[in-house]
Hints:
- Helix content is 75%, strand content 0%.
- By secondary structure, it is mostly helical.
Amino acid sequence: MDRGYFPEALAALYALLFTWLGWTVADRAVWYAEVTPLVLAYLGLLLTAGRFRFSNLSYLAVFIALMWHTVGAHYTFSLVPMGWLVEALGLARNPYDRIGHVLLGLLVLPVMEVLLRKRLCGLALASWFAVFTIGAVGALYEIIEWAYAVLEGGGAGIGFLGAQGDPWDAQADMACNLAGALLALPLYWRFGPRG
């Protein structure tokens, strides 16, 4: 499948922006904790590109999710400068984290693509499996956040957790992951490759 150089361009752009955003950060411990899964995902895509090349749609979805998360890691999610939106909507907290969890739902696109192009199941089952995968990964990440916050403690633990005083933060984040996944499904149904 000829995709041109779009994925390579996104990979290079992400590497440049990652380096720039990582040069100086709000909290280095939070930065390392936040970007570790991003680097693993990025390296995983680079290492497997020769064996399985995703569609441009899937690469774009991954790029958007990784970039949003990288910006959040740069500032720490609760400190991303979004005061204008907080004021405009009368919000009690910075919404950057919640928006990021919705955007992580875009990752249903590459999950579905693997399932359908490898002919592991049909469209309906791939859709359900992809949504459940995003939900499970989101729940696992919330457990990792909690464990890190308990072990690290202090400002780094609170910065990584990003709850902003919300006792239901983990549940809301998982709901946002699922909502994003459900919202992204029609993108694949309409534009995603089938095989």
